[in-house]
Write a structure and sequence with these properties.
Elements (H helix, E strand, L loop, with lengths): L1 H7 L3 H15 L6 H13 L3 H18 L3 H16 L6 H15 L5
Length: about 110
């Protein structure tokens, strides 16, 4: 919550530090996909779209592993698609694939 408040206040460096501490303190890299999503969103705010994509992919991996609700996984794929889309033409195909996966999940199929 602290990092999200810092992020909302535009204190991106402070938020990044707080997220990093959370990863260390909770070994969250193994079991907290929402933290990876939040860090990915911070990376988007910083216009670090490559980094954001990596974070969203990690979140998706954990969400899948944990059997998360399909809507939650779809949201993560949508975030991934937006990160790819922001990178322009070089990642357009990846963006389309991520958006398609999100749509398929929302329809209830694990394509």
């Amino acid at each position: 919550a602290k990092a999200r408040a810092q992020q909302a206040d535009g204190k991106l460096d402070d938020a990044k530090k707080t997220f990093a501490e959370a990863l260390q303190d909770h070994q969250a890299g193994q079991d907290w996909p929402q933290l990876w999503l939040a860090i990915g969103q911070l990376s988007v705010q910083e216009k670090s779209y490559d980094d954001a994509a990596v974070k969203f992919q990690k979140a998706i991996e954990l969400l899948d592993k944990q059997g998360a609700p399909l809507d939650e996984v779809a949201d993560a794929y949508e975030s991934l698609g937006k990160a790819f889309d922001a990178q322009g033409r070089k990642k357009r195909k990846d963006a389309q694939e991520a958006f398609q996966k999100a749509e398929d999940l929302r329809k209830g199929s694990k394509a």
